[in-house]
Design goal:
The chain is an alpha/beta fold. The chain is built from 16 helices and 6 strands. It has 2 domains: 151 residues, Orthogonal Bundle (Helicase, Ruva Protein, domain 3), CATH 1.10.8.60; 202 residues, P-loop containing nucleotide triphosphate hydrolases (Rossmann fold), CATH 3.40.50. The structure holds adenosine-5'-diphosphate. Adenosine-5'-diphosphate binds next to helix 3, helix 7 and helix 14.
Length: 373
């Protein structure tokens, strides 16, 4: 039995190490997969444990890892009432798009107060007051393009709009639809928009990495198939805007300067919103959010940590916290010890996680915002 337990602990630790390695490469997706597998092992072990205390301890650790997975994926760890609701309401023939209620709200997003206020005014209040809008002969505005460096929370902001409205969230990821086979990408895009058109109640439709489809048609390297796909996206967007009324469109890109101007004209993504790196207060809030729920030693100074992490994106900060939390967690699995996260763990994590956004690329965003790019 002891041999079996050791073997189990080694497997869990190997998965945690693989996850930590992925974080070192800023590969959050791979890290989340490794932590999720480690969590699954722990849940299995909890189910097999005879003693109640052991069951509880193992299940708590499994749950801790699942929290890390959710943090890395920008998802809510708590299933929301709207989740169940959205599943209930999923109509037949609408399986083509991932359709979930996000359970994320603006309270989960650190900083970005101006962005939240813009979204409240342009999207959330109008969507909540559709009847009043139509009484005054007004229509919902166009879609909103969120742009900025990677890992600053663009996807999370879009999910939070859906969460605030407790409405389903449709995510369109070009990498999921782009195909090397003639006509297949167009067919997939048409299928996705057909699903959106069939949606009778409100929903948030989010096109992630829109530059993958929406790069300018005038670029020298723009191929005929990519031009066709962009034309189709433009037509599809025009076809769904304004009907049904509760549909909100958001898109995100890390490279706004690549986009075809036609995408940025009304009623498409006519509003642009810059999502910058977090400032000091936002970093502090994000660190607090990510370290909440895990025991912290008295020597952890979140203010100081926020100062030391200037230049980090939100995603970098999540990686930092997860990396630090895994240090005592790994010890607990191997040696059965139980200690809080200490200053030294965060220090150690800081030597491994570096800012992923370079000063040069930041300057490019600033120039774009000023209209000189
Ligand atoms: P983007 O779409 O800009 O690349 P994401 O929304 O995918 O970034 O964010 C990546 C991760 O970073 C998410 O998992 C989320 O936990 C975290 N994150 C980024 N910015 C914030 C923020 N402002 N508040 C809370 N979490 C954030």
């Amino acid at each position: 039995m002891a041999g079996q337990t050791d073997d189990f602990a080694q497997r869990v630790v190997a998965l945690i190490d693989a996850g930590n390695g992925a974080l070192g490469r800023h590969d959050r997706r791979a890290a989340a997969v490794s932590y999720a597998r480690a969590s699954e092992f722990l849940f299995q072990q909890a189910a097999a444990a005879r003693r109640y205390d052991d069951k509880l301890r193992l299940a708590q650790r499994a749950r801790q890892l699942l929290d890390s997975v959710c943090a890395l994926k920008g998802e809510s760890a708590e299933p929301s009432a709207a989740d169940a609701d959205a599943t209930d309401r999923a109509a037949p023939g609408t399986a083509a798009l991932p359709r979930v209620a996000t359970g994320i709200t603006f309270a989960d997003i650190a900083g970005l107060e101006e962005v939240k206020e813009t979204l409240r005014l342009r999207m959330i209040y109008p969507a909540r007051n559709l009847e009043a809008l139509s009484r005054y002969g007004l229509a919902m505005g166009g879609g909103m393009l969120l742009f900025g460096p990677p890992g600053t929370g663009k996807t999370m902001v879009a999910r939070a709009v859906a969460g605030e409205l407790e409405t389903p969230f449709f995510a369109i990821k070009p990498s999921d639809i782009l195909s090397q086979y003639y006509g297949q990408s167009e067919a997939k895009l048409a299928e996705l928009f057909e699903t959106v058109r069939n949606c009778t109640q409100g929903a948030v439709v989010f096109v992630d990495e829109i530059d993958a489809i929406g790069a300018s048609r005038s670029r020298a390297d723009a191929s005929e198939p990519s031009r066709r796909l962009l034309n189709q996206l433009l037509n599809e967007l025009d076809g769904v805007h304004g009907r049904p009324k509760g549909l909100l469109f958001l898109a995100a890109t890390n490279e706004p300067w690549l986009l075809d101007q036609a995408l940025l004209r009304p009623p498409r993504f006519s509003e642009k919103c810059y999502i910058p790196l977090p400032d000091g207060a936002a970093r502090r809030k994000l660190l607090e959010l990510r370290l909440a729920g895990c025991p912290l030693a008295d020597d952890v100074d979140v203010d100081r940590l926020a100062e030391r992490t200037a230049g980090f994106s939100g995603a970098d900060l999540v990686e930092l916290c997860e990396r630090a939390k895994q240090i005592p967690f790994r010890e607990a699995i191997l040696h059965g010890s139980d200690r809080p996260v200490e200053h030294a763990d965060l220090d150690e994590a800081l030597t491994r996680v570096r800012p992923s956004v370079s000063p040069d690329s930041l300057q490019r965003y600033e120039r774009f915002v000023q209209g000189v790019e």
